[in-house]
Amino acid sequence: MTKPAPTFYVFHGADEFTRAETLADFKRRLGPPDTVDLNTTLLEGRSLTLGELRHACDAIPFLAEKRLVIVNGLLARLTAKEKLMGELADYLPRLPETTRLVFVEEKSLPASHPILKLAQQEEQGYVKKFSPPDAKALPHWVEKRARKHGGEIEPQAAHHLAAVVGADLRLLNQEIVKLITYTNAERPVAKQDVDRLTSYVQAAIIFDMVDALGRRDGRTAAQTLHRLLDEGEHPLGLMGMVVRQFRLLIQVKELKAKGGSKSAIAKTIGLHPFPTGKLYDQATGFTAAQLETVYRHLLDTDVAIKSGEIEAEVALDLLVAGLAAAE
Questions:
Q1: 36 pLDDT exceeds 60?
Q2: CB 43 within 8 A of CB 71
């Protein structure tokens, strides 16, 4: 006997990209887009009542076999003692066969969650947890993603791309598509392609240079600077990137001192969590007073370059040497 298709689903976990992609694939399998859209209801779980949920789920599909109801953020806010939890547990196994109800949760639910356990136990239920790959697994994810898009990427290039872009899977996917389009899938993407096309590479190298300055490693900082200059970066452009980096470091240092978490700081300064995390760690290499002194020195150097008092490349060399030696 064929097992009946599930009627209620729990999609939970921090991997927003794969979760959204899975949900989009799920919608595509339900039928033509226009018809599916007519029969799709999106509900916010923050103040949802059982009556509102039943009204959406019990409705008869319009010119289609199935209706899709997507509920965002309901399960995580419910406690086992709440009345709605019990009502849901009673209602879900009795969902109409014509309805597909999907609970979407941004974070992983505990294994003890009653609705999660119900979905695992009932044949009408289905659970999928979306956990993002860790740093070690990320290059392998990049390689698999490249194959999904009809191309290949060399292992070294996959590691390099994962390192410079970070754990933002949506952003990584965009870069992978761009790189495969560039090679026309006629050859594997190489590390040189990543360096050439990925805008995050220069920013990552600036991070490396500031890391070296934080360690007072003048030699590495100078080598990094000249690598960027040799690759055609304009000295004034580099100066602007270094100024921005230290301005962000000052902001992160201040917010960190006030007890801000990495995620909270990222929202406050309007930066993606991955570079914010690097700034958060990088800030430990400097005191607040050092950062203020460095920033004033940077602004003075910028004025000196633009007024013609000193050549830009010479100024950058002196700047790196001075910052690396500063205590």
A1: yes
A2: yes
